[in-house]
Write the structure tokens for this entry.
Amino acid sequence: MVNTVHLRTLLEVTRRGSFAAAAGQLGYTASAVSQQMSALERETGVKLFERSARSVQPTEAAQIMSRHAAKVLTDIEALLAATAGSHDASAQEIKLGIFPSLATYVLPRLLRASDWSGLGIKLKVYVAEPGQTIQGLRSGGGLDVALVFQVGQGGLAWPHNISRQWLGDDNYRVVLPQSWGIRHGATVTASQLAEMPWIMHHPGTSDATVIERLFASCDLHPRVAAYCDDFNASLAMAASGLGAALVPELALQDGPEGIVVIDVPEVRLARNIFALLLNDRQNPRLDVFMDRLSGILHESSISPKRR
């Protein structure tokens, strides 16, 4: 089955003439656009681009597919609009496992969309950490999709009967109390932060282990002022002057006053966001839901554009 996200990306590539230009419009990286186009070629069995070291050129097949894709995508929107009058009784339920920060900052935007009620989707939401929602898939807990994150390569294992879809990278940022006098957006070296108090993850978790290794690699051995795995609480403590914190961009969508976000070149870390879907679970509305979710992520700071 052809992925409609890939079709939309193809349209932008053919309209704008390059992966880079399409990436800038869609909020992806050029590499992510290239990966999507390679996936579309595999899905369709058609060569869409002539690639060289310096450029990519759409083939005639790409131009033809692009013209048809525009009509297909328009028809899909028309189909959704035509069924917008369906009553809740005809809506299909999606059982969604989602981690807290994604539920807090992204899910409301999806639910507040003006046409959400007409899509024929009922959500049953389970907010939990990734390990718990993965267990809901593994144990036959009834979930249709689990939205999870992974920091580094360890910490999570998924069942063999699921497919994994990468949605974006949530980059971590260094947050300081505004009262420390460092301006927002300043570039600071790790050594300049070495003696400052920090708010850190609780030791022993996979996230904490990755962060500790990263800090050690740039000779940053923080003086711990607090242990906290709740990003809202970490931001509140940073705003009050307690210490610096490493916080993903997703949690900074509605960050409190009293903090500044700085750039520390040695500290580069992201948590990868995935959708885990059961291979044997069929739900026509799930593709619509995933398409909407991807669009919201790509409009935010959490997407292949920074991912």
Remarks:
- The CA atoms of residues 18 and 33 lie 10 Å apart.
- Confidence is low (pLDDT under 50) at residues 303-307.
- The first strand starts at residue 49 and ends at 51.
- The two ends are 25 Å apart (CA to CA).
